[in-house]
Structure formats: C-alpha cells, structure tokens
Amino acid sequence: LRRGIKHGPASLDLFYGTPSPGNKKAADLFARNLFSLTRQLRYSLDQTQRSLDLCLFINGLPIATFELKNRLTRQTVDDAVQQYKRDRDPRELLFQFGRCVVHLAVDELEVRMCTHLQGNDSWFLPLNKGWNDGAGNPPNPDGLRTAYLWQELLTRESLTDILENYAQVVEEKQRDGVKVRKQIFPRYHQLDVVRRLLADVRRRGVGQRYLVQHSAGSGKSNSIAWLALQLAGLQPSGSALFDSIVVVTDRLVLDRQIKDTIKQFAQVSNIVGHADDSADLRR
Fold first, then answer.
1. Residues 20, 29 contacting (CB under 8 angstroms)
2. Shortest CA distance to 38 belongs to which of 21, 57, 12, 24?
3. What are the distances in angstroms from CA 58 to CA 112, 115, 163?
C-alpha cells in the first residue's frame, strides 16, 4: 500500500497517502481512495457457506476483518475471539499472514485485535481505551462503549495515518538465532500517546517536557520508535522542527530493542544512527 508495485519500467499506485497542507493535487488524489465495507463476506472457495461479519477494504484490498457480537444474543467479545480461533482457517487466503492488517473481535463493551491468525494459538490483545486505571472502556453517554473504534480509529484519515506510520511487518531474532516475522498494529494507548504528543508539539513548538508512563509489556519500544520517527518528520512550516532526535535508555537489552525497532520502522534508510560507546555518541 505504501510503496505500490514496481515491475521493470511499470509502476502501480495502490493507495494515495495523507496530503501535505496546501497541496491540492495530493488532496484530490487522496479523495479518490475507495474506502468500503462488505457485510457477510463469503471468503472461502472450499467452504462456500462460511462468511465474516464485516470486512473493510481500501481500493478493493482487504485491510481489516471483524467478528461482531452483542449481549442481546448472549454473545460477547470472548465468543468472537473463539470464532476466529475455531472457525477461521488460517490457510484461507484472507487469513494468511500479511494479507490483512488486523482482525478485530468486537462487542458493545470491548475490542480485541490479532495480527496473525494461527488457530488456537492466535494471540489477541486488547484494543481498549482503559477505564479507571484498569482494563475495558469508559461508559459512553452518546452510544456504545466501543464507538471510538469507528469514530476515532477507523476514520479515513486515522486509518491512513496508521497505514503510513504505524502498521508494519518486522523481523525479530529469537534467542536461538531464528528470525521470525511479526505484523504490528498499534494498541489504543500507543496511538493515543504518540498522536497527543505530536499535536502538542505542532501547537506549542519545541522545548516542552512530558512524562509518559508505560506499564511492563505495553510496547514501550514501539511507542518510542513511532514518536521519534514522526518527530523527525515534522515540518509544520516547510522546514524540519527538530534537527535531531536523541533516544537515551539505561538498559542494554532495551537499548538493542529500541535500536532494532526504530531501524525496522524507518521508511527512509540511513536516518538512524546507534552509539555503542561514548565516541560514537560524541560523533
């Protein structure tokens, strides 16, 4: 989606990204993108009666699948998760690794997400806002607790931003040296903190101080990488707002992790330098 397809002298754009301010041609191209939804999508050639509750497409390419539940039928988000694990064959083309950006289990109270369906081994993470310093979502006086999913995260502009700056297939090396490919989709708290910081910098400029608290296992490395790369690209008046971004950590394991994460997310090569010692840091 980001780079299109190139074959010899031919190139094909699959998607027009976020237009820069004042660029009318880019805005016109972005408006041509076709965002569409299909209900009860029959996805299987082998088991033709099988269908998904909902599938989201951009320019005809599947981006996200949904299993929707509600308590009127005595089903919850847990039933949606089990349906993905039990009834959705990961060998089907739509569910193979890298074909869709994310698979979403949704009811009126919660959203959970999975980026790689593997039957019973599928790993679902919460895509919730959190409530009272805990899990779940806050009450919504204007509708369902999960309305933010389509009102905030899956608008055309927000989804485009996620595809351009957050969603990624990365390669991680395990302890035995084997490399494993993983697909990344931002959790709500990660998207929220990066977007809020970027908005504040655009509004108030450089020189502010912030404290971000992340719990263990909540994706600090990804949040740091997304923030650093987007701060480096901020050009509100045509020139870069920051000359350089310096990331400092006090743990060796986290240092390597953040370095690898930033390099993998960087879409422009040679944008990241790593200091192994004080001489590197000085240079």
1. no
2. 57
3. 22, 17, 11
- Joined together, the tokens standing for residue 140 give 């919504």
Q: What is the pLDDT of residues 132-178, one digit of tens each?
A: 988 999 999 999 999 999 999 999 999 999 999 999 998 887 778 88
- Computed over its alpha carbons, how large is the radius of gyration of the chain? 20
Q: Helical H runs in 14-137?
A: 24-32, 77-87
**DSSP codes of every residue in 127-154:** ----BTTBSS----TTS-TTTHIIIIIS
Residue 54 Cα distances to 76, 149, 162, 218, angstroms: 16, 14, 20, 28
For the beta carbon of residue 150, count every other beta carbon within 10 angstroms.
14
Q: Which residues make Cβ contacts (< 8 Å) with residue 267, sequence separation at least 6?
A: 2
CB-based contact 105:142 (threshold 8 Å): no
Which residues lie below 8 Å from residue 93, measured CB to CB, with a gap of 6+? 43, 99
Look up the pTM and report it.
0.91
Q: Are 48 and 41 in contact (CB under 8 A)?
A: no
Using an 8 Å Cβ cutoff, are 191 and 162 in contact? yes
Task: Give the largest Cα separation in the chain, rounded.
Answer: 64
